[in-house]
Amino acid sequence: MTSLREEQLEELVLKSELLILISLGKEALGSSYLLRQRLQILEDRYPHQITCYHLEVAPFSMILSTFNIAYLPSLLVFQHGELIEQCQASLPLDVLELKVKLLISQ
């Protein structure tokens, strides 16, 4: 999984044909670490179908207000450059994988 800077978000998301999953969180949070680990597993299982990024979020980051994010870690899912899902990132791996399978089969 690649680390992402806020200023790269638009460029990478809008240009990608792949399903993009972005974890938003803080390195120090255990729950953020778990989400990154789960996304890395999914990225390894679905190469050339999904791309996963992690974005380290500062307390007053613009991305929090842009996507109306109240809780960290959070997960943003983009397809064809559009936000299609946003959720709190406490989902188990099997639930995340089911979501990915459904989205890539569309």
Plain-language structure description:
- With 106 residues, the chain is of the alpha/beta class.
- It has a single domain (2-104), classed as Glutaredoxin.
- The chain has 4 helices and 5 strands; from the N terminus they run βαβαβαββα.
- It has helices at 9-15, 30-45, 62-66, 93-104, and strands at residues 2-4, 19-25, 50-56, 74-79, 82-88.
- The protein has a 5-stranded mixed beta sheet, sandwiched between helices.
- The chain is globular.
- The two termini are 24 Å apart.
- The mean pLDDT is 87.
Task: Name its key features.
106 residues, alpha/beta, Glutaredoxin, five-stranded mixed β-sheet, 38% helix
Offer a quick outline of the entry.
By secondary structure, the chain is α/β, with parallel strands linked by helices. It is 38% helix and 28% strand.
Structural class: alpha/beta
Order of helices and strands: EHEHEHEEH
| CATH topology descriptor | Glutaredoxin
Overall shape: it is globular
Whole-angstrom Rg:
13 Å
CATH superfamily: Glutaredoxin
What is the CATH class? Alpha Beta
* Secondary-structure arrangement, i.e. CATH architecture: 3-Layer(aba) Sandwich
Number of strands: 5
Count of domain modules:
1
Q: Strand arrangement, largest sheet? A: 1-3-2-4-5
State the separation between the terminal residues, measured CA to CA: 24 Å
- SS element count, helices: 4
Low-confidence stretches: none
Which range does the strand content fall in? 25-35%
